[in-house]
Each structure stands twice: as C-alpha cells, then as structure tokens.
Amino acid sequence: xxxxxxxxxxARLVVLISGSGSNLQAILDACAAGVLPAQVVAVxxxxxxxxxxxxxxxxxxxxxxxxxxxxxxxxxxxxxYDAALANLVADFAPDWVVLAGWMRLLTxxxxxxxxxRVVNLHPAQPxxxxxxxxxxxxxxxxxxxxxxxTGVMVHLVPDEGVDDGPVLAWExxxxxxxxxxxxxxxxxxxxxxxxxxxxxxxxxxGEIQVPLAG
Length: 214
Ligand code: GRF
Known about the structure:
Layout: E1 11-17, H1 22-33, E2 38-45, H2 51-58, E3 63-65, H3 77-90, E4 96-99, H4 108-111, E5 118-122, H5 134-143, E6 149-156, E7 167-174, H6 181-205
Parallel strand pairs: 1-2, 1-4, 2-3, 4-5
Antiparallel strand pairs: 5-6, 6-7
Helix pairs in contact: 1-6
The structure holds 5-O-phosphono-beta-D-ribofuranosylamine.
5-O-phosphono-beta-D-ribofuranosylamine (GRF) binds next to helix 1 and strand 5.
C-alpha cells in the first residue's frame, strides 16, 4: 500500500530531472511493464525544454518546471528555491523522490521534508568522483593508469553531502583499454537503466532496510 493512503496501491514516485531523462524513461518503462509496482506521479525539472520533460508528457505524467532564476533576487535563494521545490513535490504525496540526473545540490529545506525517501543515482562507485562529469573523470583517470573500472551507485540522500549517503546498491563497470568515452558512457548508462528501477523495486517491496525512513 502506498504511504500516501490514496486508492491506487502502487507506490508514488516523483522524479527530479535536469536533462535527457533516459533514467526516467527506464523507470517509466519498468512501471508500464509491471515489473516496478509504482507510478510516476510527477516529473520536475529545474530546466526548461529538456528531453526528459517530453518523455514524461509522452507517458501522460505531469511534467513541471521550476527554474531557479526566479529565486535569485532573494537572500538565501538556494534555500528558498528548495522550500518551493519541496512544496511542489509534496503536493504529489510521493512515497519516494528519485533524483535521476538532477544536477543541482539540494539543501535541508528540501531534504528535511522527505527524510529517508530521497534516492539518488550517481554514475561512479561509492566515494568516487562526486559531482559533475563523473563518467568522464573516471575515463581520464583510467587513461592515466589510476583505475581500471568505475561503477554505478544508488544511495539515499539524508543531507547536503554531494553524491554521498547510505548506499542502497552499487555495481562495478569495467573500463576496457580500447574504450572511447562514448563506449564507457553507454556502458555506464546501460547499468544505470537496469539498476535504478531494480533498487526502487527492492525499496518498495521492503527488501532494503532504510534506516532514516520516517
Ligand atoms: C546519469 O548518468 C546520472 O547518473 C547522472 O546524470 C545522468 C543523467 O542521465 N547524474 P539521464 O538524464 O537520465 O539520461
């Protein structure tokens, strides 16, 4: 049963995006196929015109944009933005908030509203390459002889740590000697598209203990 108590028994997901939304698509496809007992009840982007918004609309999901620009004039604009974002998301009564390519740091005025229920995807191993361009940085590190594999991690976001927080699952992704960057990007994305819906299924089924769930 959904924590929201609404009549549809499927878990309610709000997915936050900033770009192409290929991971959103993987979630939508898993929901449509019935392998993920969930419904995406809203998609929110911080950027106008991104492909992920079109993917949401094509699936009949409300696709909303909250640009940060309107908050710039206010003191503490990041917190004001995050409080407004939290209000927007809360209106959809999510069981889980999924950051799927959401490229903006979130502060406690957002995270404190959904304790233990914000899930992030990071295209690297736990503790590795936090922040942007993680796949490219892993590729360069491999070229420099520093690493021979990267990974994909799905984790909870309890606080303002960057790509940090209790790990729900992660997988190794090998880097082959003759890989181009595009090869590696494709390999990492293929793992992401499988792992993220899988972890959401485990969470919904209660197969992963979530220490912060309130
Ligand atoms: C993914 O690689 C995700 O891990 C990273 O940004 C990318 C988003 O891709 N944070 P998409 O928008 O899901 O296609």
